[in-house]
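Batch job 17 of 40 flagged for manual review because the log was empty.
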Amino acid sequence: MSCATRRSFTAEERATILLRHLADKVAVSDLCDEHKIQPSLFYVWQRQLMENMAAALEDRRIRAVDTRQATASSGPSTRSKPSSRRRTRSLPSSRKNTGAEKKLSER
């Protein structure tokens, strides 16, 4: 008795089989006989397709914005850390501290 290895179907092969049933109206029993698979496996693939169909049809622009927001709020980013040296810049003359503001800032 030989030990048969388990076959695996790529996502493209599974999609082709499911599409033949949905678009070409080929009977499930005929597809299963042709590809030598169990009908229960076919229905598992069909259920997975139906559950994930909304994600496939989702607007990619919205998904990209959601992904960027999730990574921004998830903690430390992958960017390099700023140097420990503190950068200072001078304020324009209109925004320089007046005498009263200097006293408050010294506290």
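Reviewer: the log was empty due to a logging misconfiguration, but the result itself is present. The mean pLDDT is 79. Unflagging and moving on to job 18.
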